[in-house]
Amino acid sequence: xxxxxxxxxxxxxxxxxxxxxxxxxxxxxxxxxxxxxxxxxxxxxxxxxxxxxxxxxxxxxxxxxxxxxxxxxxxxxxxxxxxxxxxxxxxxxxxxxxxxxxxxxxxxxxxxx
Length: 113
What we know:
Blueprint: H1 8-14, H2 18-34, H3 43-47, H4 54-71, H5 74-98
Helix pairs in contact: 4-5
């Protein structure tokens, strides 16, 4: 993500301590995919101020899925990717709503700014 032309600048502008961020992501995905209960945070709250829209979520999912399929066995990759898609959709809906845009089923959020 850090080296991606679209996503890298967004991450780099907000994350100074990558080691800490990656540890938080480990706990998050452990909780989401394995129900470990290791993560206790508010992902929506963290993402609301970000300057992102549908194209950012699409790019993130593209990288996430490629990585999951590269490092995980197919059933595990499917499990992670399915959850990533749900999370991305939830975050996109939350971001849109926080900006006064109510998305219809199947509609995507595109920032007009």
